Amino acid sequence: GVKAFIFDLDGVIVDTAKYHYLAWKNLANQLGFEFTLEQNELFKGVSRRRCLEILLDIGNFTASTEQFERWLIEKNEDYLAYIEKMDSSEILPDVPKVLSYLKSKGIPLALGSASKNAKAILEKVSLLPYFDSLVDGNSVTKAKPNPEVFLIGASNLGVSPEDCAVFEDALAGIEAANNAEMVSIGIGDKKILSEADYNFNDFTEIDINFLDRLIS
Ligand code: B16
Ligand code: MG
């Protein structure tokens, strides 16, 4: 059975995508072009650097290295102003139920996120104590669908990859979990996440029996 669980952050634990969107949109507007919610879909699970490259492509902008780095900082400062106002009311429904059930069973838990702000966000929503290991944008060199982020998580928890299950909302994340030979659990649109071993719209659909079957 499954001996450890790894959680993605944005789209699984909290909906920070809406704040990423506002910050990218602010930057786009400042540069004189529009950035839509639909375009923001392409940014989910994608690193900050890669997002800026895509954004500049959308606006037909080229930037010097220095300018690129300045925009990265600007976007993040803007994003962090939104994060600053977050509290536990922004945790997605029934996430604490699943975290505390797994904790009560003595199952080790890790975070596996592309975000460099992951720790600050978990602190803001008071979920940091649940996690035995945080693997985030500061600890990985290869982006999802590369399995690196989840493999480091398994190794930090002392569990072999085949004994881990991953909760993910992005296709690249499901692919990363599959590439790591972990059990993949898609949270969100089943049509998009059809490569997952299991699919749920959100954590309210995950019952204790499902978790018990996985861990037994
Ligand atoms: P940061 P996840 C990802 O989080 C977001 O989905 C993605 O939109 C964002 O660009 C990325 O984190 C990097 O975030 O700018 O905070 O380092 O889904 O991997 O938890
Ligand atoms: Mg995500």
UniProtKB/TrEMBL annotation:
Cofactor comment: Binds 2 magnesium ions per subunit.
UniProt-annotated site: Important for catalytic activity and assists the phosphoryl transfer reaction to Asp8 by balancing charge and orienting the reacting groups, residues: S113, K144
Entry-linked Gene3D superfamilies: HAD superfamily/HAD-like (3.40.50.1000), Putative phosphatase, domain 2 (1.10.150.240)
Gene Ontology BP term (one): carbohydrate metabolic process
Gene responsible for this protein: pgmB
Organism annotation: Euzebyella marina
GO molecular function: beta-phosphoglucomutase activity; magnesium ion binding
Family to which this protein belongs: Belongs to the HAD-like hydrolase superfamily. CbbY/CbbZ/Gph/YieH family.
Protein name (record): Beta-phosphoglucomutase
Positions of the catalytic residues: D8 (nucleophile), D10 (proton donor/acceptor)
InterPro entries xref list: B-phosphoglucomutase_hydrolase, Beta-PGM, HAD-like_sf, HAD-SF_hydro_IA, HAD_sf, PGP-like_dom2
NCBIfam families registered for this protein in UniProt: bPGM (TIGR01990), HAD-SF-IA-v3 (TIGR01509), PGMB-YQAB-SF (TIGR02009)
Binding site for Mg(2+): D8, D10, E168, D169
Residues where substrate binds: D8, L9, D10, W24, K75, S113, A114, S115, K116, N117, K144
UniProt cofactor(s): Mg(2+)
Enzyme Commission designation: 5.4.2.6
